[in-house]
């Protein structure tokens, strides 16, 4: 059963009445049409919300770095400088757009579009809550990995087409880094897919619970290690410090987007900040219980039983709780990403490759085997339930 | 609802269209209001204030291509591992987990053999050897 925003809304009475009214009016089955309209509105909401989060991400980045360095940070535009990102956006639109005469014009223009398409397409499968998910594709994570690697193509093309040495170095580094770190990340995702038994995000999250001991993070020791492997490779894949070699400002001027000015640069930046949110959301969905709320509050059944609320109303409250749960965890991870950036120094290229191929990849392979053996040996039970069961049996003997 | 419904992919198409619209729209909007005074110096590639020497499209360090080759091997093999991982739980519940575990182990063994080979050959080292004539070390950044 696919569960998207449309299937959630189709439970309500209004949906079927609207569909039947439109079917009478238009003379053909309007279900697909109504679904299209709902999807379009949902997509607009998600894109609007995520663009705002991406913009606020640039603000948070500067404010948190200022906090860590005991400075003020941006504080002029709006209360506490919170509208800074809007001012930045206006500035970038007003800036002159320069395309170097020696550049490969077509790929130069194409590169930021590829980054944007790659990031926006991944938004389709981000599980915001059990009802508010744009597309619950049965290939979920697989689709996400595939679409996210479009960003790597964008970064490389941006560096290559500029015909500037700094851009070329940045683009080459970016491409090699993004593809290298895709390996440990993907293998870790495979080990979580093993535990969940499915590729769609619905399946991945439904195997977990609201309380920490029900998360895949604490399912077994291998999954626990896997979280750190995934998080490290996610940092590297989004070009975040300490892995920001493609845009290392102290050595490569600005890396792959040296020659980009104005809004074309802004698109790269926006794509990067939204991608950070997406990888944090995926980390939450895979390891930290996703949108699950403790004590089954998300389904709203308790509210119906205890308070006697209307079932649709109770479900809506449950959805809001789930949204809150997902966004809280994701934004906490987002904070950690920024915190890491302002704490750790940048790696060297050879250290970067050593970390990926000699440490993370073998550890990820070890985790994969560990998870498979654990699933086989303990019948898929988590370490918590094993301890709990043995405690019950021990108590039963006395 | 049928098991394979293309409606599910509708948001993907909408989002890709939106991405192109947002990116294209913001650049188009800018083109109406932003200044446009190009000159030769502005349009030359940035090289720290010097005039750019030659093109950037030269032969590039071969290490990056070695990494790309290793990546292809690992990426294809991990893509092939996804289906096995996805059905592992279901098969484990009906008692066929051992067969799948064996196939996963075999697959991982191939991957481990691959990484061990690359490691032994020194392809995972960024700088293969400092003692070798300065072919490798000179270009290191």
How is this structure best described in words?
The complex is a heterodimer of chains A (398) and B (141). By secondary structure, chain A is mainly alpha-helical. Chain A contains 14 helices and no strands. In chain A, helix 3 crosses helix 10, helix 3 packs parallel to helix 12 (311-341) and helix 7 packs antiparallel against helix 9 (221-237). The radius of gyration of chain A is 23 Å and the shape is globular. Chain B is 57% helix and 0% strand. Chain B has helices at residues 10-33, 63-93, 97-121. In chain B, helix 2 (63-93) runs antiparallel to helix 3. Chain B is flat and about 70 Å long. The termini of chain B are far apart. At the A-B interface, helix 3, helix 4, helix 5, helix 7 and helix 10 of A face helix 1, helix 2 and helix 3 of B.
**For the CA atoms, what is the radius of gyration of chain A?**
23 Å
Which percent bin holds the helix content of chain A? 55-70%
Which residues of chain B form runs of ≥5 with pLDDT under 50?
Answer: none
Helix segment tally of chain B = 3
The H/E string of chain B reads HHH
**Biggest sheet layout of chain A:** none
Q: Using DSSP, what is the number of strands of chain B?
A: 0
Rounded mean pLDDT of chain B is 79
Q: What are its keywords?
A:
heterodimer, A: 398 residues, mainly alpha, 14 helices, 68% helix, 0% strand, B: mainly alpha, 3 helices, flat
Helices, strands, pairings?
The complex is a heterodimer of chains A (398) and B (141).
Chain A lengths: L4 H5 L3 H14 L4 H38 L15 H11 L10 H18 L17 H22 L3 H32 L4 H6 L14 H17 L24 H26 L13 H7 L3 H31 L7 H30 L4 H15 L1
Helix pairs in contact in A: 3-10, 3-12, 4-10, 5-6, 5-10, 6-7, 7-9, 7-13, 9-10, 9-13, 10-12
Chain B lengths: L9 H24 L29 H31 L3 H25 L20
């Amino acid at each position: 059963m696919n569960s998207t925003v449309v299937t959630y809304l189709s439970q309500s009475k209004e949906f079927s009445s609207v569909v039947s009214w439109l079917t009478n009016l238009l003379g053909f089955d309007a279900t697909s049409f109504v679904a299209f309209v709902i999807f379009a509105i949902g997509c607009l909401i998600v894109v609007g919300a995520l663009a705002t989060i991406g913009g606020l991400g640039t603000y948070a980045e500067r404010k948190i770095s200022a906090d860590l360095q005991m400075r003020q940070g941006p504080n002029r535009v709006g209360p506490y400088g919170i509208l800074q990102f809007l001012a930045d956006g206006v500035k970038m639109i007003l800036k002159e757009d320069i395309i170097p005469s020696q550049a490969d014009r077509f790929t130069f223009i194409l590169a930021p579009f590829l980054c944007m398409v790659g990031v926006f397409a991944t938004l389709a499968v981000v599980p915001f809550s059990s009802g508010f998910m744009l597309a619950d594709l049965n290939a979920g994570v697989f689709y996400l990995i595939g679409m996210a690697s479009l960003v790597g193509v964008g970064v490389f093309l941006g560096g290559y087409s500029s015909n500037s040495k700094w851009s070329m170095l940045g683009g080459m580094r970016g491409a090699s880094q993004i593809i290298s770190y895709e390996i440990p990340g993907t293998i870790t995702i495979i080990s979580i897919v093993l535990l969940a038994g499915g590729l769609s995000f619905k399946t991945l999250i439904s195997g977990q619970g609201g309380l920490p001991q029900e998360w895949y993070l604490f399912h077994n020791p291998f999954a626990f290690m896997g979280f750190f492997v995934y998080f490290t490779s996610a940092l590297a894949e989004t070009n975040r410090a300490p892995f920001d070699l493609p845009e290392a400002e102290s050595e490569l001027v600005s890396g792959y987007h040296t020659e980009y000015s104005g809004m074309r640069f802004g698109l790269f930046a926006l794509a990067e900040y939204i991608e950070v949110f997406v990888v944090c959301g995926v980390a939450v969905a895979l390891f930290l219980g996703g949108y699950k709320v403790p004590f089954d509050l998300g389904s709203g059944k308790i509210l119906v039983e205890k308070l006697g609320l209307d079932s649709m109303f109770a479900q809506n409250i449950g959805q809001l709780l789930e949204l809150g749960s997902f966004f809280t965890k994701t934004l906490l991870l987002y904070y950690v990403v920024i915190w890491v950036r302002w704490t750790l120094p940048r790696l060297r290229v050879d250290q970067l490759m050593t970390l990926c191929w000699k440490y993370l990849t073998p550890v990820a392979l070890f985790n994969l085997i560990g998870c498979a053996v654990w699933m086989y040996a303990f019948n898929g039970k988590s370490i918590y339930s094993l301890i709990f069961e043995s405690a019950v049996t021990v108590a039963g003997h006395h | 609802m049928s098991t394979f419904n293309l409606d599910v992919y509708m948001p993907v198409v909408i989002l890709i269209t939106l991405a192109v619209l947002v990116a294209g729209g913001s650049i188009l909007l800018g083109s109406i209001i932003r200044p446009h005074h190009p000159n030769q110096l502005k349009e030359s590639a940035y090289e720290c204030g010097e005039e750019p020497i030659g093109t950037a499209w030269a032969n590039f360090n071969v290490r990056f291509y070695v990494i790309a080759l290793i990546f292809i091997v690992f990426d294809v093999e991990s893509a092939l591992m996804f289906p096995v991982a996805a059905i592992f739980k279901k098969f484990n519940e009906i008692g066929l987990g051992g067969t799948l575990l064996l196939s996963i182990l075999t697959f991982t063994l191939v991957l481990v053999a691959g990484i061990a080979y690359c490691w032994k050959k020194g392809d995972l080292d960024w700088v293969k050897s400092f003692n070798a004539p300065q072919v490798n070390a000179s270009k290191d950044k």
